[in-house]
Amino acid sequence: MSDQSNPFEAMMKQAQEMAKAMPGMDAFSPKVFEAMMGTMPKDMMEMMFGNGLNAGGLDARTRLLLTLAGLTMQGAQNDVAIRQTVRHAIEAGATRQHVTETIAQMSVFAGLPAMTRATELANQAMDEKDNDMKGDNMKGGEA
């Protein structure tokens, strides 16, 4: 047996050192990146994933609720993807009840821990949206 280190470990260490050397990477935050992504307008979502290209097919809201169901089925492990999908589903016309029922339906298949985690993440996204709307209404009322 040789005394050489694991090549994968060496590669990962090198990648970490390169990332540390990049300007601004020490301040990188997934939350900040998520906030920069924004939400696609409903008309654009309809054109790209809805009836715009597939007349008579699933609308964007339904497709996004199916995506949310799939993310929940995977164990609700991708926080950013779940919150972003919820934001887009709401923009596409889904209600809080639609989101909640979609996640609840998956509890039968994915289990209660996945449902609970997905619900927490969805509530974060919906609460942020509600707070943004309240802030916009207050700004409009002051003018």
From TrEMBL:
Q: Name one Pfam family in it.
A: CMD
Q: Which domain of life is it from?
A: Bacteria
Q: Which residues form the Carboxymuconolactone decarboxylase-like domain?
A: 43-123
Tell me the Gene3D superfamilies matching this sequence: AhpD-like
The record, for PANTHER family, names: 4-CARBOXYMUCONOLACTONE DECARBOXYLASE FAMILY PROTEIN, CARBOXYMUCONOLACTONE DECARBOXYLASE-LIKE DOMAIN-CONTAINING PROTEIN
User: What is the designated name of this protein?
Assistant: Carboxymuconolactone decarboxylase-like domain-containing protein
